[in-house]
Amino acid sequence: MVQTRGQRSVFVTVGTTKFEDLIKAVDTPEFAAALAAKGYSQLIIQKGAGEYVPCKLLPAGATSAEHASGLKVQYFDFSPSLAKYISSAALIISHAGSGSIFETLHAGKPLIVVPNPLLMDNHQAELGDHLAAMQAVVCAAPDELLSAVTSLDTSELKPFPAKNACGIIDKVDDFMGRHRATS
Fold this sequence. Notes:
Order of helices and strands: EHHEEEHEHEHEHH
Structural class: alpha/beta
Oligomer: single chain
Number of helices: 7
C-alpha cells in the first residue's frame, strides 16, 4: 500500500537490519495519535529482520488496518526497493544507516534519524548528530521519538547539499585516521 492522493504518509524503515526499539517506539497508540494530530493519515513500517511484530496498532495477525486514531497502519519485512515508499511519504523515520539516510535526503524528504545504540562504535549516532548539526535531519533516540515527532517543524530543516559530501567524507576520514590531500 503506497500513499494515495490526499493521504500524508509516514514511512518507517530499518533497512536490512533489525532494530526492535525503533519498531516498538512507533507501535504505540500515543505515537499514532501524535501522527494523526500532525495531519498524517498513514503509517507504513518496514520492520526488517526483527522478530517484533507491530501488535499495538494492528489486530493480531493483520499486516494492515485502520487504528482508532484514524491512522491507516501497515507493516512489511522487506521490499526489493524502498524508493516508492520514500518518494510517496511526507515524512521518513529511519535507522541511521547511511544508505537510508542519503536516499531520503537526495529525495528531498523530511527525515528523523534514529541511531541504533546497540551497534558497535555507535557510528550511526555520529552520522545522525553530524547531519542534525547541519539541520538536514532531526536525530532522536527511540525513547525520544514521540517528542521529536510532536515538536517537528519540517520547515526548519535545511535541504541537504546534494553535490557536496565533503563534510561527511572529512568526518569519515577523521574517524578512520585518514587525511585527504588538499589542493
